[in-house]
Amino acid sequence: MSVAGQVRIERDGAIATVVLDRPEKLNALTRAMWAALGEAVDALSADDAVRCVIVRGAGEKAFSPGNDIGEFATQRSNKAQAREYGRTMHATAHALARCRHPLVAQIHGICVGGGLEIAALCDLRICGASSRFGAPIKNLGLVMAYAEMAPLVRLVGPAVALEILLEGRVFEAAEALAKGLVTRVVADDQVATEAHAAAQRIADGAPLVARWHKKFARRLRSAEPLSGDEIDEGFASFGTDDFQEGRKAFLEKRKPSFEGK
Q: What are the pLDDT digits (tens) for 41-66?
């Protein structure tokens, strides 16, 4: 299924893959692609048949180098245009952040700027040994706005986020792993295999539990005390059919078959 031509959705059972499909430009993002990505993620989030979503760039040269600078002359050349462009980007960032299903970033090659912002909003980030990361937007005289910077700060902390933005270096996968920017580094020819294996492990689990874990992790970012209802929700899984199936499967030494009920 294609969304706006350059964002494509593929389905493999309970696993969906969203492809940034502009390989001739290393999957550089246009405003239309940002909007299409948000629409795709929202649609998949609402689909209970989905248990995991992989996000990747087409080909194996790049996840994405960020926004297409060639579009800036007509779409982002002044503050008013930038504000409108930002609304599109930030709506998509919000779609990624609120997605109910686990998100796995499958990172081949270059992952910088807006590409890094998308990857930071995923739950797992699996890359190849030759992947490259960074956000050299200082060289364009541009700032990473609050909504774009927040996921990066949450992921690696303000000190590392500032190092990335102030220096503007493009660095290797090993350094990205040391900074906590990626979850796992594998051989370049194993990125797709490992990303799909991770997605399958997630999909094999109880889907309601995955959604609860994501919800709880988001909630725990806030310093606000948990309400009684929120604390009680931590025990809701014991009332599900999936818990009964998981318990029986464990005792019977077999793989559980979860239905999301």
A: 999 999 999 999 999 999 999 999 99
Q: For 218-257, write each residue's pLDDT tens digit.
A: 999 888 999 999 899 999 999 999 999 899 999 999 999 8
Give the number of domains in the chain: 2
Q: Are residues 123 and 218 in the same domain?
A: no
Is 143 strand, coil or helix? Answer: coil
Instruction: Measure the CA–CA gap between 167 and 15, rounded to whole angstroms.
Output: 37
Question: How many residues are listed for the chain in this entry?
Answer: 261
Query: In Å, what is the CA distance from 258 to each residue of 48, 205, 216, 238, 245?
Result: 13, 7, 21, 14, 7
Residue 10 burial (CB count, 10 A): 12
C-alpha 120/C-alpha 123 separation (Å) is: 8
Report how far Cα 30 is from the mean position of its chain's Cα atoms: 18
H or E element in which residue 18 lies = strand 15-20
At 138, the amino acid letter reads: K
User: Residue 131 in 3-state DSSP?
Assistant: coil
* Cα–Cα dist 123/22, whole Å: 24
Q: Tell the residue number behind the tokens 């979850």, with chain if given.
A: 183
CATH (domain of 147): 3.90.226.10
Please state, in angstroms and rounded to a whole number, the distance separating the CA atoms of residues 44 and 53: 8
Q: How many Cα atoms within 13 Å fall on the side-chain side of residue 134?
A: 15
